[in-house]
Amino acid sequence: MAGVRGLSLLLALWLPVVSASEAGTVIRINKAILNYVSEFGKVPFQEALKINDEHFLDQSSDVLPSVRVRSPPPIVQGKGLSLGEAVTLSLSRELGPQNGQPGGGVSPCLRAASQRSPQNPARLVTPALGPPGLGLAARLARELATASPHRRLLQPGFPCRPACCRIQVLEAHVSRLGLKFLPDFGIRLWASANFTVKVSCIPESLELSLPVKLLSDLRVTQSSIGTPKISISTFFPYFGQATVLDDNKNLSPALLSMVQKDIKAIFNNKLSLNVANLVDDININMGTIIGLNNLSPESQICYYVMSEPNITSDSISMNLNAVLFLLGKPVMLPHDGPHLELPEPENNKDAMATLTLSQNLFDAILMLLQKAGAFNMDITGQLKSEDNPLNTSALSQFIPEMAEQFPEPKPVVLRVRMTVTPVAVFQNNSITVRLQPLVEVLATSSNSAFQSLFSLNVVVNLSLQLSVSRAKLYATTSVVGDVFLVVASSNVGSVNLDHMQTLMNTVFQKSLLDHINALLGHGISLPTMVNLHYVNTDVQIREHYVQISSGLSYHP
Questions:
Q1: Which of 185, 254, 413, 529 is an S-S bond match for 159, by CB 3.0 to 4.6 Å?
Q2: Burial status of residue 210 (CB atoms within 10 A of its CB: 0-12, 13-18, 19 or more)
Q3: What is the rounded distance in angstroms from the CA atom of residue 129 to the CA atom of residue 110?
Q4: 344 contacts: CB under 8 Å, gap ≥ 6
Q5: Measured between alpha carbons, how far is 67 from 85 in angstroms, rounded to an integer?
Q6: Residue 352: how many CA atoms within 13 Å on its side-chain side?
Q7: If residue 9 lies in a helix (H) or strand (E), which one and from where to where?
Q8: Residue of 331, 355, 512 lying closest to 433 (CA atoms)
Q9: What torsion, rounded to 10 degrees, do the Cα atoms 203, 207, 213, 214 define?
Q10: DSSP state, 334?
């Protein structure tokens, strides 16, 4: 998470500067996702509800500090002490001898929580305790030393709490999880869960089944670093009637009510804390939306939320801006883009998410790749190849002066440099990208230096076909129409463009398409969280924007 925090600081410094230039994106999470999250989220929500602490109750119904058994055990004065030894030591110091035994022995509650050593049945074998554990043991021992060891939890007619109880949550099972959007607010969550609770008392124990219904309203907002943020507005657990799982155990209703009251006191605090921890984890995952993703080795892109989410009963939509980086520095876009309104989904109303990418975003990415030099390339041929047209001998057939300058065949290089920013033209169902590179034709001289022969201004139109895989937008290209050529300069006299056109169609086009398709094959990262993928996508190209209707799939 250190990388996310570092990027968050960077964005906090730069957002006031770059926000004036929009590469607009709108993402809408539709109601169709709620059923998926409700089903997929049962397991992580169930894990979040688990209460792993052990709780002890004394006669006054107070919940004593939770005890967690950890390994390796703490050391007291360089030597590990068992719980029984710790209690004996504490009692001998604070209570004095009783019945001829130092410390008066060990209380029934502590004995119930211990195991006897098979080598020495008289010795209690329990986890070693540090100073905090000694204090707890002493408190338990002092308060329980006078308790009757003969009080039975299951004995009818005794509606009083046992001397000491240990409460453990053995299992949490979520049978139902539901979600719905709350207009202008966020999300309402409700769940039905059942907890299996073990109550260990003196001298017996039992297991209870406790049904709980949970209701929580979650507010969805924009965080200070431009990510979505969820916060808990309200959280209410509603407890049902606990039942004893063992039919052979007869527990009085009054005592069951007392035990259930104690359990509720523990659950009220722990459940809200556990759900809050789960929400924190979700916010951390949503924070990965601002992560940097490579467009090329020198350029990156990230997204941030521009304003508060728009929430209706059917969807949550967010306006996002793309921030582009070149060599680690944000790139200022040359113009402001218009505010992008998300149109209604077409032909796929059951999509979980609808993502709209403005033409401004595509123009900004093309500009970034051009500034990074990603479109530049050199086209060479093998001199000894029989069908190689990239040599001075082949070119001299339609450029007579080259035969005089190069009596011996020399390799020729086409140096392609994108000096003008590519332009994307959006129409219904099609995107055309116009490239205007400068192609310089060079030959190697006797000292291996390059000699400029002539240069051409080239115009070529490419058609983009879009697709989505996982969390990236991919594009493949094909040439549309003819390649237009104009001589920019020449050191070899007149250049026959008709013959040069043939050369460009056979050599230049193929090399250009291979290079551009390899570049776009890296993909453009779409707004998403870590491990969240777009699936079953439908890409529609409209005037000034691209709309992607998609399902979502989480892969932890």
A1: 254
A2: buried
A3: 13
A4: none
A5: 17
A6: 16
A7: helix 2-18
A8: 512
A9: 70
A10: S
Comparing CA positions, the residue from 334, 324, 328, 329 lying closest to residue 369 is 324
Has this prediction a pTM greater than 0.90? no
What 3-state DSSP class applies to 413? strand
Q: How many helices (H) and strands (E) would you count in the chain?
A: 12, 25
Size (the chain), residues: 556
pLDDT digits (tens, 9 = 90+) for 352-371: 999 999 998 999 999 999 99
Q: Which two tokens stand for residue 310?
A: 């728009």
Q: Which pair of tokens denotes residue 468?
A: 């989505």
Sequence-ordered strand ranges (E) for 223-352: 228-239, 243-244, 293-296, 299-305, 310-311, 315-326, 329-330
Contacts 24+ apart (CB under 8 A), 128-132: 128/73, 128/74, 128/75, 128/76, 128/80, 128/81, 128/82, 128/83, 129/73, 129/74, 129/76, 129/81, 129/83, 129/86, 130/74, 130/75, 130/76, 131/76
* Contact predicate 53/67, CB 8 Å: yes
Give dist(CA 244, CA 221) in Å, integer. 44
Residues near 312 by Cβ (< 8 Å), separated by ≥ 6? 181, 183
Annotate 432-455 with DSSP letters as a single string.
EEEE--EEEEEEE-TTS-EEEEEE
Environment class of residue 39 by beta-carbon count within 10 Å: exposed (0-12), middle (13-18) or buried (19+)?
exposed
- The predicted pLDDT at position 146 comes to 41
pLDDT digits (tens, 9 = 90+) for 4-51: 444 444 444 444 444 434 568 899 999 999 999 999 999 999 999 998
pLDDT tens track for 438-462? 999 999 876 778 899 999 999 999 9
Closest CA to 174 of 193, 187, 148, 150: 193
CA distance 58 to 51: 20
H/E element, 426 = strand 423-427
* Maximum Cα interatomic distance, the chain, rounded to a whole number of Å: 123
Contact 133, 69 (CB under 8 A): no
Helix, strand or coil for residue 242?
coil
Kind and range of the H or E element at 478? strand 472-490
